[in-house]
Please model this.
Amino acid sequence: MIAGEALLDTFINANIMFLLAFSLWFVVRTVMQHSGLKHAYGTQLRLLNTVFLVVIAAPVIALGFTALQSSGVAKGVSLNLSDMVVAYYLNGGFQMNAAEFEGLVHARDNFILNVLHGAGFIAQLAIAAFLIGFFIGMVRLIYSIFCLFRIVAHSYAWRCFGRVHIRLSDRTLVPFSTRGLRNYYVVIPSHMLGASEEMRVSLAHEFQHIRQGDLEWEILLEALKPIFFLNPAYHAWKRQVEDLREFNCDSAVLSTGRIKVRAYCDTLMSVCQKTLRRDRAFVIAVPKVTLVTADRSALRDGKVSFLEHRILSALGARRVRFERLLFTAVAVPLVVALTLTTLAIQRPGDWSHDRLMLSTVVNLERLDEINRLSTFGRVRD
Amino acid sequence: MKKKKNEMLTEVELEFMNELWALGEGTVRDVLEKLPDDRNLAYTSAATILRILEAKEFVTSRKSGKSHIYTPTLAKDVYQARSLKDLSAKLFDDTPASLVAALVNDEGISEEALGQIRALVDRRLKNDSG
Model:
């Protein structure tokens, strides 16, 4: 049960971290966009991936800090948010009934225990929603991997450079890349053999995805999706990574100067047009990284589509100088802030002095209430 | 290239098969020469398309000197029939009558073509009853 409690606690922390990290990222992105760094897609993508790593590594960070404190380093330092709030309350920072405040402080512990024991309607609802969603998510993921495997298995080997295998397929209209345990697979629609410019653009684009490590990130994000499906921040996060990696890929391919912007944009539009016409079944196949994703909802809602954003971005693309410096300057405070947040949202390990005080206040208030009631009883008698 | 049986041809594969059906058999260069000048297809791309056709078992190849000679294994009319059956199944709810109706109702079709269709149907009916 203790292992289950720790696991559930870690899961809740990870969800809180995703929400906080995405909010923080949103602020950073807005600042970057308004300070002339809109086109620093590479930096933005690396920042987003770094933040993701910090969120994933949060349990290790918390364990490390606890280990440090138990070995005598920074022993007196308390970064726990709950402890800070209790101390603030005891110092008269805000007025609230002590019993109610204690209930609020223990709400998370109570929720964890309720979920573990399946006690109460809310806990049962949370368990049911998670299990159903997790099951659907896993089935979807396994089916998608199976579909992808079938497309790759039925494609024709064309070229091979080291671990990168280029294959031709007549089962897809969109070029995409994926990977196995060892090898990378770039799958190109066989009709592109007759369109050399489209082929050149597609290969350059997919190779850039492999170089950027986008496949590994996509696999990680897809694998974690069935666990964090209830968290809107996770979906927004994934969408953001998908957008940024395409912008960055477009910008990196065009910056080499080997492919003309016109040819690049023409290929994007041509592939998208073909997808909208026919390749509906392909939309579900993940985890993979495609040249373009047909955004039908934009057509329906009359919004500016992602493809339009990409083309506009490709037309106005300019590489940002000092990308590494910019990344370090933004990443360091972001990582520090998230590390501190990670430590702040942990459940307190033991009873601190302030918690004992709060418990005493609650008990005294209860005794006072009991005495008051019995006094009333005597008076009435 | 591993053998993979696939019933239907893509657009570019059909273009190559049409040339091979017309030639009877031919090398990569023979097929390339038959293609329109503006096609601008690389030799390696054409060779890959023919290798895919071989993997799909639409053609066979034999080595002659330094090049391969490709021969269709499937007659054009057999593929036409297969293609029509596929079209009928996918687009006309597996009812060939709907397919013919769509063809006959097409305003672009000439009277001469309609006459030929009628003659074909009459001949088929006569053969079946006879």
